[in-house]
Amino acid sequence: MVTNLIQHSRPAFPSAGPVRLAFTLIEMMIAMAVTLLLMAALGRGFAFIGETVRDSRAQVELTNELRDITNRLQTDLASCTVPLEPCVSTLDPSGYFMYYEGPVTDATSSLFLSEVVDGSPQTAHSRYGDFDDYIAFTAVATGDNWFTGKVPRFVLDQKTVHFNNLVNGTSIGYDPRNFTGNAWDPIVIQSKYAEIIYFASPDYVRNALPTAITPIDFDANTLPDNIRLHRRVLLIRPDLNVNGVITDRDFTINGSSFPFMRADQWPAITTGTNDTVTAAATPIWGDAWIYGMAGVHQQCDLSLRRVLDANGLPTRAVAANSLNDLALPHNRFGHVRVPSTVAGLPTGETTMPVLALGPPAPILNSISAVDGARLAPPVSGASNAQVVTPILMSGFIRPEFVLGTDFTHRFSSDDAWGLERLGEDVIATNALALDVKVFDRDAAILTTAAPNNQTVRTSDPGYREAIRDFINQSPRRVPIRGDFVDLMFPVLAGGPVRGWQVRRFDRLAPATGNSDGAIAVNTDVTSLLLTEFSGIVNYSGTSTTLNTYEDSLYRSGKIVVDAGGAIRIFQPTFDTFTFHYEHDGFLQGHTAATGKGSRWSMTVPADESFDLGATGINSSTTSVFAADGYLERETSPPFLTRPESIQVSIRIENPTNRQVHQMSVVHKDRQ
């Protein structure tokens, strides 16, 4: 049969055996391993995306923060009331513009903290820039956007009483019970004009203040762990004066009275007088000359000055400034006169007004990793060196002048004046640089010899070596002229040049050889060091502390040399300054037979041997020019050249991912 034939023709297949219903252990382990690898890859991918998003967000935040700061700075500078013109005529400016150049520069951290990592030189801390500069000026508000600030209520109420008495012909005294609110309540007021100050300040070890001014430095790299950028706005309101002064008032707390709107006794506080300084500051009773106005600046946002007595000495009374008052340096925020015992001057003299600064940054004490040699120039006051590291008045502005950090003036051991205002003037909490530069038409941008052919600017760490390379070139390449420079760049203690004397190039430089040599004296090098704003006029073998720098720097009082030939005050400053000291009835200028640098006599001479620059006759024995010439002046602006422009660079850091951004503002004088 057919059916049977088909059945018999089927091939015989082997038996398939039992059916497997699960994976083996090895297969499971392989599958799990693949899954884990896949999950790890996905996690890594998501982490990368997250980091990228985070970094992008941080970059945007940094950019926005910098843009806000620089836009505000640019607006403020554009509102400056005076041109960048030093006062060399008899007409005082209506306000002022000044900037101070600290000894730290953009190259300091790279040179002083370089180290060897895995056999190669590294600059692990080079993100830090020039953070100890200071810029201040008077500004006028535009439109209805006036400046605002706080004053104690009683200042306004007492002015109201005074005004009513003048109008009504009465003599009614001030009684706070006749006014609403607490007499010490802070009241916000406005002003069309203001004194604006930009400066940086580190976080301090608070329990060490005020006897020790120590920035927090947990990583022990001699640099502050955190730097804040401040913008202080002080209102110019001379209309608030009553009979020429701001009226003061005692504030009683816990049975003790503390004066409001009254400065500390100058120059030193007498123990037991219950002055504004409490027992916590006993070790520094004698330093009231430097912090005496700080307490007042914690209490209000007015531009204030000490009132002078008949001999020109500061009193405890304070007055609100006008624009014309602020042309005079001693009336400005943070300016003090240093007593003779501190500045090493003859008895009966003080310095001219200088910034109330603290000690220099600890990084300037760095030493060579090779043999422990000092990298910065010798400290001031210790030798007759022409280039020095200033140890007096050369660091950050004193913490007493920073809102909320005045631990010299206290209501109690844990209640500092202004503590409730901490952070009001802060515009950045993570700053790395506030770098102010001036345009110098003579500044040289150098190109090193082949095969390197590197372009080096005055602020670059290698500028000193570029000068030495320039000397050895044959023929010498023509430098490019004109650049923004640090004021007095060849002699800044933390700069790349640090003078023409023997200096180590950096922390790792060998103790012998070219890296330790002095810069030769010749005509071409002179043109590199003696520029518009270098401040130097002589670096030859005949230079001393008495003739190295511009005469105007000595006359301004920004450089003071004692009788032994040692530099005691060194504050590189551009300032529009004033002519007022030539006819103020006080003796300023070089009042001693030895040393150099203008001082301020603490007594008025009985004869007429002062203010000779405004007598209308030629009183100079060395000048044949017209009456009241420059040589007859007691004082002078630090620099006599009008700069084309000023550049301000701000650098901030994101502390989370260490991203660093920097922006610059150029203020070009349009007046």
Question: What are its keywords?
Answer:
five-stranded antiparallel sheet; alpha+beta; 22% strand; 671 residues; 18% helix
* Alpha carbon gyration radius: 33 Å
Whole-number tally of structural domains: 1
Number of DSSP strands? 28
Unreliable parts? none
- Mean pLDDT across all amino acids: 87
Q: Percentage of helical residues?
A: 10-25%
Q: What structural class results from the helix and strand content?
A: alpha+beta
Q: Which strands sit side by side, in order, in the main sheet?
A: 18-8-7-4-1-24
Biggest pleated sheet: 6 strands, antiparallel
Query: Distance N terminus to C terminus?
Result: 124 Å
Q: Count of helical segments?
A: 10
Shape: globular
Q: How much strand?
A: 15-25%
List the helices and strands and how they pair.
Layout: H1 2-9, H2 25-78, E1 97-100, H3 108-112, E2 115-117, E3 120-122, E4 134-140, E5 147-152, H4 153-168, E6 186-191, E7 193-202, E8 227-235, E9 249-253, E10 256-260, H5 288-291, H6 294-299, E11 304-308, E12 314-320, E13 335-336, H7 340-343, E14 349-351, E15 354-355, E16 406-412, E17 415-417, E18 426-428, E19 431-447, E20 455-456, H8 463-472, E21 480-485, H9 523-529, H10 551-556, E22 559-561, E23 567-570, E24 573-575, E25 588-589, E26 599-601, E27 645-653, E28 660-668
Antiparallel strand pairs: 1-4, 1-24, 2-3, 4-7, 5-6, 7-8, 8-18, 9-10, 11-12, 13-15, 14-26, 16-17, 19-20, 19-21, 19-27, 22-23, 25-26, 27-28
What would you note in describing this structure?
With 671 residues, this protein is of the alpha+beta class. The protein has one domain. A 6-stranded antiparallel β-sheet has the order 18-8-7-4-1-24, covered by helices on one side. Strands 19, 20, 21, 27 and 28 form a 5-stranded antiparallel β-sheet that branches. The protein starts with a helix and ends with a strand. The model has no long low-confidence stretch (mean pLDDT 87).
